[in-house]
Amino acid sequence: MATSSTSITSLQALKRYLRLTTSDDDRLLTELLDAATNRIEGFCQRVFIDKNYKQFVSGSGNGTLSLPNFPVTAIRRIG
C-alpha cells in the first residue's frame, strides 16, 4: 500500500527507520504516516511537499514581495 502523495516521507523510508522488513503492518503504518503528516502540517500551518500554486499578488512598490506559500523553489512567470 502506498502512502499518499502528500506524505512527508515514504512508507519504505519509515519501515527502514523502524527496521521492519515485512508488509504485515503496511496499512496501519500508511494511515499513521498520513495522520502524522496532517498533524505536522496543521501545527506548522504549511505544506512540506512541492506543490504548484497560481497566485496573483499586488506588490506595495517597496522592492519586496511576501508570498504566503514558502519556500519558493521556482517562479514561472512574472507580469
Describe this structure in words.
It is a single chain. The protein is mostly helical. It has helices at 11-18, 26-44. The radius of gyration is 18 Å and the shape is elongated. The relative contact order is 0.15.
What is the subunit organization of this protein? single chain
Assign the structural class, choosing from mainly alpha, mainly beta, alpha/beta, alpha+beta, or little secondary structure. mainly alpha
Number of strands: 0
Instruction: Extract low-pLDDT stretches.
Output: none
C-alpha geometry: elongated
Number of helices: 2
Q: Strand portion, in percent?
A: under 5%
Q: Give the biggest beta sheet.
A: none
Q: Topology, pairings included?
A:
Blueprint: H1 11-18, H2 26-44
Question: Brief description of this entry?
Answer:
By secondary structure, the protein is mainly α. The protein is 34% helix and 0% strand. It is built from two helices and no strands.
List keywords for this structure.
single chain; 79 residues; mainly alpha
